[in-house]
Design goal:
alpha+beta; five-stranded antiparallel beta sheet; 14 helices; globular
Length: 366
């Protein structure tokens, strides 16, 4: 347990991508609660849908059924339910009182594996979900109370690790241009813009401990994270459009828009474009568990507004502004306004700005 926790703490000082962080979390849990198959995914804090991550022991063909169950089937330990629960860790054996056949997820997916238990965990920052994980055991073994306790103890360093990774955005200068995909009723890519294959490669989910080189694989294969967004759109009864954020293997965040097309064939259009560093500021703030009002106040601070002007702009009292600032300082572990702005933005986003800024030798053309 101590070694697993210490590894997560040490990894917070490394410049890891979101996928690498997920791999570190998976390895840490393997030490305290061994499993036979796992999926650890970062999430878009707004939609709670997977944004990227790693899998181990699951076949790629099971991605769509797994998320169809999550989005459509009544079942136990749904990630959204865990995100609202006082306890972010749960097992399927415990939830079903030992009768796994009560779970549609077990019937449709895990029974074929000979699964004997599933542990699920969510990594939270306030009411925002930063990551989700599913860990499956086979051969009759179940997760015991001590293992669950150890997993809970790893969530705090995992949260810190994820926050650091969320604050680091890769430069967008080398990203593929905006991509448009057209999918048929079976979610197969039937048409896409010329550089679509490069974007799909960027968004492919990694296999834990396995090379992710794509040579020999289908360049039109749809990443699982996009499949989930498409499934969510098809399942929605209130809207034919949906937007979420994903993180590529290089660390670049992209925004994905999914829309159902009119006409026969149940076709869907997917547009994908990179999110610029400045647009990631709200996402970075959300990773600290800040509320919507707290984010509004921080953005006012970045504009240099004093307390009275913040209160006037947001139509709240100066006393309320100070209360919110106190909460922000506690969540972000700073003590002054200047330290807050510098810590959240200068140290996190300036590197990306430098890397995407063109240098010129003679600005006045002499």
């Amino acid at each position: 347990m101590i070694a697993a926790r210490d590894r997560l703490v040490a990894a917070a000082d490394e410049a890891l991508t979101g996928e690498q962080v997920c791999a570190e979390i998976a390895r840490a849990l393997q030490r305290v609660a061994p499993y036979d198959a796992a999926a650890v995914m970062t999430t878009d804090p707004d939609s709670h849908l997977p944004a990227g991550g790693v899998v181990s022991g699951f076949d790629a063909s099971e991605c769509a059924p797994f998320w169809d169950n999550e989005l459509l089937d009544p079942d136990f330990n749904k990630f959204n339910d865990l995100a609202r629960s006082p306890d972010p860790v749960a097992t399927l054996v415990e939830a079903t009182d030992g009768d796994l056949t009560r779970s549609p997820r077990h019937q449709k997916l895990y029974a074929a594996y000979g699964a004997s238990d599933e542990l699920r965990a969510v990594v939270m920052a306030g009411d925002r979900c930063l990551a989700i994980g599913a860990f499956v055991r086979t051969g009759g073994a179940v997760f015991d109370a001590q293992e669950l306790c150890d997993v809970r103890a790893l969530l705090a360093p995992a949260t810190t690790l994820l926050r650091r990774a969320l604050g680091r955005c890769a430069p967008t200068a080398s990203m593929p241009a905006p991509t448009v995909l057209i999918l048929d009723a079976a979610d197969r890519v039937i048409s896409m813009t010329s550089d679509g294959a490069a974007m799909l490669s960027e968004l492919m989910t990694g296999q834990l401990g396995v090379s992710r080189a794509l040579e020999g694989t289908d360049p039109h294969a749809l990443p699982g994270t996009i499949q989930v967004a498409v499934s969510h759109t098809r399942a929605s009864r209130s809207s034919t459009r949906f937007t979420t954020r994903l993180r590529g293997r290089s660390g670049v965040w992209v925004q994905v828009h999914v829309a159902s097309l009119d006409g026969p064939g149940e076709q869907v259009a997917v547009s994908i474009d990179a999110i610029r560093s400045a647009e990631l500021i709200p996402l970075l703030l959300e990773s600290y568990g800040l509320t919507t009002r707290e984010i509004e106040i921080v953005l006012c601070l970045c504009r240099g507004l004093p307390t009275k002007e913040i209160a006037a702009e947001l139509a709240i009292s100066t006393h309320t502004v100070r209360d919110h600032l106190k909460a922000v300082f506690e969540k972000t572990h700073v003590t002054t306004r200047g330290e807050l702005v510098a810590g959240l933005f200068t140290s996190q986003l300036l590197t990306g700005l430098h890397e995407t800024t063109e240098r010129i030798e003679d600005p006045v053309g002499r």
